[in-house]
Amino acid sequence: MRRLLLAILCWLSSFPLFAVEFDAAKLGKIRERMQGFVDQKLIAGAVTCVGSKDGVAHLEAVGLQKIETKQPMPKDALFRIASMTKPITAIGIMIQQEDGKLSVDDPVEKHLPEFRGQRVVASREGDSVTLKKPSRLITIRDLLTHTSGLPGGFPPGLADLYATRQRTLAEAVLVSSQQPLDFEPGSKWAYCNAGIDTLGRIIEVTSGQSFEEFLSVRVFRPLGMNDTACFPTEQQTPRIAGLYDSKNGELFAANRPIVGPATGAKHPIPAGGLYSTAADLAKLYQAMLNAGHLGSTKIISPENMLTMTKVQTGDLQCGFVPGMGFGFGWAVVKEPQGVTAMLSPGTFGHGGAFGTQAWIDPKQDLFVILLIQRVGLQNADGSDLRRELQQLAVEAIKRSL
Fold it and tell me: C-alpha dihedral over 280, 283, 285, 287, to 10 degrees?
């Protein structure tokens, strides 16, 4: 406990002593640069947001929400934030740990008996697979850090799930539990949607609530995130930004069902199902910069805030750009370089499959949000859009002499 307290004090001491101020003229360059990406037909439109622990300094929209109808992009447009859902699912797990409902070091089978008797692949030869008993059971910690060994792709029968969402979370996780592990738990890092969905199911079992209701009650409503949900309402659906791909320098509507879940959808997809707005996400990231609090509202404790946003993967190679590690649900910058060069070590965040990005830099008291809906980018985590937004945001911070 004493060592943890010292670590927390050390972490807090890395924050700026005074409120960060931004140069409005330099922040204004963000709109100009994002409009440039629209003019290049790289994206249809975007919403960007920059702020600090004290609030939002920049919130702008450019381009079109839907090319087909030429609707301008509103600042309150909803975006499918896809894998940016993962850190929020991890926050739910940390809340349950604070409530005494679980420990991150619990074996998964303690809460989900369907994981008992799991096996790991010992060898593959042609169509033959040899299985063996793993050296240890997978834990919640393994799921949080993408080191469980659960297959990262879609298990048989689950490919349709992410399109139609017709199976329940319990049914989907049951299928995943019957797949052999690809590697020994904790031995390597491999991005794993099934593992994060399993965390969502653990939240359901330990809380007695559906995944989406738990997040609503414990995170979204307390923070006033009224536009964040797994299943947007009929009133919210018209504000969902269209999803686009590119061919021969022209954008076209991508054939992906993200504009509102399909009728009768059941699966909340803890690994990537949330819709949100820039203003809503800003409240969450502001709370993360305030050690888990927003005003008098506490989401998680400073201790758990520190634990989940520090590197938990040691020297394992992680992430989609160089110099990264992983905490619990969050990607963490270990060695700034390339697209992260302007950020501080310890910056944490996550991207999404449709090009969205959000990163929180405690040392510079900064959060940056990029919301777009685009498939076909070579690597959204390393995109020019992300790089230039971050660079302009950092340049806009007023530095003391």
Answer: -150
Residue type present at position 82: A
CA–CA distance, 204 with 257 (Å, rounded to integer): 26
Q: Is residue 27 part of a domain?
A: no
- pTM across the whole model: 0.93
Q: Is residue 313 left, alpha or beta, with left meaning phi > 0 and alpha meaning psi from -120 to 50?
A: alpha
Tokens 């501080």, residue?
A: 344
State pLDDT tens for residues 329-353: 999 999 999 999 999 999 999 999 9
Q: What is the secondary structure of 229-256 as a DSSP string? A: BSS--TTTGGGBPPPEEEETTEEEE-S-
Domain span at 276: 63-283+293-299+311-337
CATH number for the domain spanning 245: value is: 3.40.710.10
Q: pLDDT tens digit string along 172-186? A: 999 999 999 999 999
199 part of a folded domain: yes
How far is the C-alpha of 228 from the C-alpha of 150, rounded, in Å?
28
φ/ψ (deg, to 5) at 33: -70, -40
Structural element, H or E, at residue 71: strand 71-72
